[in-house]
Amino acid sequence: MTNRVTTRQARLLSRPCVALFVCVLAYAVPSFAQNSTPPAATAQPPHIAWSQLSPQEQQALAPLREQWAQWPPSQQQRFRQVAARWQSAPPPQRQAIQERLGRLASMTPEQRAAFSARSDEFRALPPDRQQELRRAAQRFQSLPPAQRQALRQRYERVPPAQRPHPRSTPPRSGAATGKPARSK
């Protein structure tokens, strides 16, 4: 047997190579063309002018009117979703939503960035931990104002590095009420 390749064998071997080349070329050309123009999915939507909002949206988002043009379009879209929920909410919830929007509007950009980071961190927590933190916040809010102020001052005296982190274990029993924990 010789190692010589016949013309017929060479043609048979080259067919898969040509087919492979055509396939690679077929896949490469569309992807090259796609890279020349940015995909529509990554294009940011244009800013929404306040005048483009419906009267109901303007009513719901009234606390944000002064800063409306400063918000990025993605945030404006989220606010529109809030306005849609506001329209179907009962009056007490409507008032609470507008109060939260008012607090957000009064924050500096740095405060908003810190708030956003904390919110993202909270949403990353497991649902059971989120519930624990919500219950602790409700307990705190139900305390008399003087006791809440005393707890805030006590918290501020603790160096930031020693403060509990939301991902850490839940506080000792009684920590949210200001009562000392029972020793074992």
Automatic annotation (TrEMBL):
Signal peptide: 1-33
Keywords for the protein's UniProt record, in alphabetical order: Signal
Name of the protein this chain belongs to: DUF3106 domain-containing protein
Keyword Signal applies: yes
Domain of life: Bacteria
Region of interest called Disordered, as start-end residue ranges on this chain: 138-184
